[in-house]
Amino acid sequence: MFSFMVWAKSSGALVEDPMGRIPVETLYPYYVRYCEVRGLNPVRQEDFTKWLKSHGYEVRKPQHKSTIYGYRLKADVLEQLLRRGEEEESMGLESYKES
């Protein structure tokens, strides 16, 4: 989870913004894809949320949905980066099969 959050911040996809809010249910699927591309086992969404809270992210539950406050998400940036990673993984598998 730590590597995902660092990666998302350093890539410019997760941006600190005092007015920003991201529902955890929006961020979590990107975390899962990140793990899949890297061959990692993702944790459950509940554990992901607990980890965020325990590592200083402000998580509240407006309308009963866990939401990270103080950040905004550039989903297009994440999509592009994850798609690139998935393509690289796919190409690696294809070259492995050809060998």
> Rg, please?
15 Å
Beta-strand percent range: 15-25%
Strand order of the largest sheet: 1-3-2
Q: How many angstroms separate the termini?
A: 34 Å
The SSE string, one letter per element, is HEHHEEH
Q: Residue-averaged pLDDT, rounded?
A: 90
What is the CATH topology classification name?
Arc Repressor Mutant, subunit A
Largest sheet geometry:
3 strands, antiparallel
Please tell me about this protein's structure:
With 99 residues, the protein is α+β, with helices and mostly antiparallel strands. The protein has a single domain (2-78), classed as Arc Repressor Mutant, subunit A. It has helices at 2-10, 24-38, 45-54, 75-98; strands spanning 14-23, 58-60, 67-73. The protein has a three-stranded antiparallel beta sheet with strand order 1-3-2. A hairpin with a 6-residue loop joins strand 2 (58-60) and strand 3 (67-73). Helix 2 (24-38) packs parallel to helix 4 (75-98). It starts with a helix and ends with a helix. The model is unreliable at 93-99 (pLDDT under 50).
Short description:
The chain has helices at 2-10, 24-38, 45-54, 75-98; strands at residues 14-23, 58-60, 67-73.
Descriptive terms for the model:
single chain, Arc Repressor Mutant, subunit A, three-stranded antiparallel sheet, disordered C terminus, 59% helix, alpha+beta, 99 residues
Which helices and strands appear, and what pairs or packs with what?
Blueprint: H1 2-10, E1 14-23, H2 24-38, H3 45-54, E2 58-60, E3 67-73, H4 75-98
Antiparallel strand pairs: 1-3, 2-3
